[in-house]
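Bumping with the actual sequence this time:
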Amino acid sequence: MPLQAVEPQRLYRQIAEQLRSLIATGEFNPGSRLPAERDLARQLGVSRPSVREALIALEVEGVIDVRTGSGIYVRGMDGVNGTAASLPPEPDPAEWGPLELMRARELVEGEVAALAARHARRAQVAAITGALAQMREEAEAGIIPRAGDEAFHTSVARACGNEVLHDTVRGYWQARSGPLFERLGDYFENPASWDAALVEHSAVLEAIRCHDPASARLAMQAHLKKAYSRYTASWRRANHS
């Protein structure tokens, strides 16, 4: 038998495949409720965020249903063994887990904001200010301000004076448009969450405008920590885990 190329899989994909196999073999029957996230994490010996990412992937693929306030349920076998035409497209196996991405952003973008506070020129501060205004206008119009949010973070990265870091932050935003992140966003993005984000972004802008690297770092880290907490809290509310 010829050797097959080995493709590395992200941890959440490995967890998703194990759960998919258990569903396909009848360990979890259609209509049954899956164990709580914390129990799955304990049995698998992995972190709860990794389990959460795996469950989001299975939901995107149509294998499970997340019922707000009730739990996570196995769909009928058509949702697992249906034809390619009937199933949603599977996420790219190389797609970053959204919660891991948020943690990486906290580390990297905190330093990016500090550099921006040190190096930003007047025109670059104006660009960051304009992006925040765009966010506010979109939110007031009832539009999820993702475009303004992306403009804000990439403008901060552009002002840091390091093209590698700028490209890195842009890469985060390209990953942000993937199906896993989009699905997770459906649970937490609402007017209240964006109102909070606007206040947090304003603190970042003020620190950069004052050329205060330490405050800019802390403000960006605080924003991304709170965003992570909003994602986590909304998912827990949805699946009652």
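The tokens above came from a reply further down the thread. Confidence is low (pLDDT under 50) at residues 82-88.
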